[in-house]
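anyone seen this seq b4? input:
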Amino acid sequence: MEKYAREDVKSVLFGHNVEDARRCIGVDSTEEVILLSPEDSKNVDVESLTLDLMAVLPHKKVWVVPDGPMWRSEPI
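predicted toks r here
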């Protein structure tokens, strides 16, 4: 993810009261999988967050899912 895209994603996450999230690595280049802590994924409106992320990542398929041990990830 490029620098400005990261900043935009962080801004959207912050606007949804998510202070920390990760992104999945090793997925198709047309996708962006955003991993939330289990607590954040329960407290956030995932549909609204996903739509807002799609607006800043217009050429990507965006998924917002709870983080877990099956994901290979990096900080956003």
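Residues 3-75 form a domain with the Alpha-Beta Plaits fold (CATH 3.30.70). The mean pLDDT is 94. kinda curious what u guys think
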